[in-house]
Amino acid sequence: MSEAALAAGIAPDRVLLPESVEEVQAVVLEAGEAGTRLLPAGRGTWLGAGGWGVDPGRGDPDGEGQPGGGGEPGSDGRQGGGTDSPRIAGTERLDAVHHYEPADLTLTAGAGIGLDHLARVLEPNGQWLPFDGPACDTGTLGAAVASGVSGPLSSRYGATRDNVLGLEVVTGDGRILRIGGRVVKNVAGYDLVRLFTGSRGSLGVITRVSVRLFPRPESDVTLLFGGDAAGAVAAARRVCTHEVPVAAVEVIEGDEGGVGRAAAVAVRLLGGVDEVDESRARIVAAAGAEPSAALEGGESRAFHGRRIGWEAGAAVVARLAALPDRLAETLECARAVAALAGGATSADALQGVVRVKGSCPGGDLAALAEGLLRGRREMAAAGGTLTLSQAPAEVAARVGWTGGGGEEGGLTSRIKALFDPDSTLAPSCP
Prior knowledge:
By secondary structure, the protein is of the alpha+beta class. Helices cover 32% and strands 23% of the residues. The chain is built from 13 helices and 18 strands. It is globular.
């Protein structure tokens, strides 16, 4: 955990691994009394993502989002620099399965259970939790809920927030909240489950999660259609608007498509054998060509597993999003960013989301920052957004992680004050 924190640019005061919700509560209260920031984590693999773990009001008198710099007091009077190094509260020991009812397709487990472990628990009953957001292959259930980022399968199974039924959370002021429930039909008061999903630990430490499960599809087939970049986008849009239901449609440019062409369209079909066979025939007829390759069963699952871990190790990761019918424009903007970052693009055609990863070869960070700012302006003009998940510190300081603020920032601050009034929890909305 300490190594992961240092890799994320965070020098922790100490790393704590509580084994119960009561121990988490004690850790939070102790941090509050000591005036020390607390950074919630699962396995520690996503600590630096998106700028959530960097508070520009502390240890950064210039407000540039640099962790550990300076020594001036932050907005709450705490000292920056080494005296304000956060403690990390890892939940990886909260990994028990507390309730699993296969007949009801529901499960409750500790937030620290790995999604890989959870998959093995569900496999004997032919069930699964279709969380396929970036890096879900190495993360925990609690971290997946805290990040709230969904993947291509959300078009078929719903976003992460749609499949979280209940949560147990320790807030920044030490309260233990049990919200939602263990069943699908559970409606009472404000929907705090959705509020905490995606809050990245800024409101509380998630200690237990109840989720909705799904039967694992009998058949899993991915059709790969090769072509040039423009043709791939047009083909993807035809598939997305066709009457045949598909689980996911991705546009993958370069060699990663695995078809030896400039781009590939990966169409994933899930369901019963007869259903998938019929859908396959109709998709091929609509495309007017046989696929360059067809992956079935384990090959299909492995292919999409690699897509989940696609961003791993990248120095720059950006996410561009607009309406799906503007996919061509979004991809064009993403390609320009990828060229500056020395990387590649991957598009979720059903959602209109394009990811960019890069390694920053040559180190021209000023040009990269200007390209990202230009891309953000272009996306805003198209009614979309550009956000950063990973970036060198000087690039993040120049560009900003989200480009947000204003009224939204004020609302976020008011919500945080309700659950973490003393700002004990280190994460804050970037």
